[in-house]
Design a protein that fits this description.
15 helices, mainly alpha, 404 residues, Growth Hormone, Chain: A, 2 domains
């Protein structure tokens, strides 16, 4: 039976709770990015090795989406999210008492995998909550909340670590997860829209997910996300090394403060809304151009205000694109495969960012910050090339259809 229409206050509360869940889950994956120095000191290892705390968490986060995506087409979405929050709470407490770096890395892997349950279920869930005329706004909001999670993780844990130490910071995040679990249970488990589960077997759902990767348009959009996040997150990850080195010598707290520039990701809901009037390519392609300009500001300047401006533009440009690529993917796959498609897209995005933190390590060692800037700029240029080619082909196809 169809659900009764929800009142605007109830709808807004459910949407806000959904966004908070995604933001907090994503924050836990990125919360080590601003405290590499403190992790290296705590476990007495070289600071370059500390980046694996993020790499392992983000790789497990990305890989989890392949396994979780088809499940999101089959099982109850709010229950999946609550399960993820519970597992995430336990994993963070384990990390906070880690006696060795290997133990800590294992806990970070569990954090990454558990965190993936939340956006994998809540992003498709938001499409159920959203009124059709505001779909772009709502999808943009939940995508922006994921980016705010990157900012929140870097800023909050950086500042808490500077004052209380990273172990206490992790425990505070665990308490926040408990509060959020209670709010999510209260708002999402009652009178929330449910979609009919996919009628196919799980094996067929996984095969369907693999077929999506072999379909030209979704494949091109996945490739765009991969190159975008390789360049975007690669630059953001190594910015910590840049700012803690000469001539800046930033502390964890100062790295946290400058990360507030990522709040420009709040542009995502507006980009999603505007795209419903102008078309997604007219917003996303200029967004990639802004990202390329931002990388040059960050890469070739030794001025903190210019680096901050570059970071502002980088997040703004990336999140002009991100919700629109989600919308394009949603329009190119059957609704019964929406969970798989959105999860695969997150997989390639975060997988690209995770690989960048590992692959760019030798680049940093050999060529330093200029090498990182060039590599990330090339990756973003490839994203623009793939998306631009897709836009031209669609425009040609539409023109040919009109001529018939």
């Amino acid at each position: 039976m169809p659900e009764a229409p929800q009142s605007p206050p109830s709808l807004r509360a459910k949407a806000a709770t959904t966004c908070l869940m995604v933001m907090t889950a994503v924050a836990t994956v990125f919360m080590t990015q601003s405290i590499f120095l403190e992790i290296s000191t705590a476990f007495q290892l070289d600071i370059a090795r500390a980046r694996f705390a993020f790499s392992v968490a983000s790789l497990c986060y990305a890989a989890a989406f392949f396994f979780i995506g088809p499940l999101a087409d089959r099982f109850d979405l709010p229950k999946m999210a609550l399960t993820g929050l519970t597992a995430l709470w336990a994993a963070i407490l384990l990390a906070s008492v880690a006696p060795s770096f290997s133990y800590f890395i294992t806990a970070m892997g569990l954090i990454g995998f558990s965190a993936a349950l939340v956006p994998a279920s809540m992003i498709p869930h938001m499409t159920l909550l959203a009124p059709p005329k505001k779909l772009g706004l709502y999808v943009g909001a939940v995508v922006a909340s994921g980016t705010l999670g990157i900012v929140f993780g870097r800023v909050a844990v950086g500042l808490l670590t500077a004052h209380l130490g990273w172990r206490v910071a992790f425990r505070i995040v665990a308490v926040l997860l408990m509060v959020l679990w209670a709010a999510a249970y209260a708002w999402l488990m009652e009178t929330t829209p449910r979609r009919q589960p996919a009628p196919r077997k799980l094996s067929e759902l996984y095969l369907g997910a693999i077929r999506l990767v072999c379909t030209p348009k979704p494949l091109a959009l996945f490739a765009t996300g991969f190159f975008l996040f390789f360049g975007f997150l690669g630059m953001v990850t190594f910015l910590t090394y840049r700012l803690t080195a000469p001539p800046f010598f930033f502390t964890a707290g100062e790295v946290g403060w400058i990360s507030l520039a990522g709040l420009t990701a709040l542009i995502a809901p507006f980009a999603g809304s505007i795209s419903q009037q102008t078309g997604p390519y007219k917003v996303s392609l200029p967004g990639l151009g802004i990202c390329l300009v931002a990388l040059q500001l960050m890469g070739w300047s030794e001025s903190v205000p210019l680096i901050t401006l570059g970071l502002l533009l980088l997040f703004a440009g990336a999140y002009c694109c991100q919700p629109l690529i989600f919308l394009l993917i949603g329009a190119s796959v059957p609704k019964t495969a929406l969970g798989s498609a959105s999860s695969l897209y997150i997989l390639v995005c975060i997988g690209g960012g995770s690989l960048s933190s590992m692959v760019l390590g030798p680049v940093w060692a050999l060529w330093g910050w200029p090498g990182i800037t060039l590599a990330c700029s090339l990756s973003l240029a490839m994203a623009a090339g793939v998306l631009g080619t897709l836009a031209m082909r669609e425009a040609q196809g539409n023109q040919n259809a009109l001529c018939r």
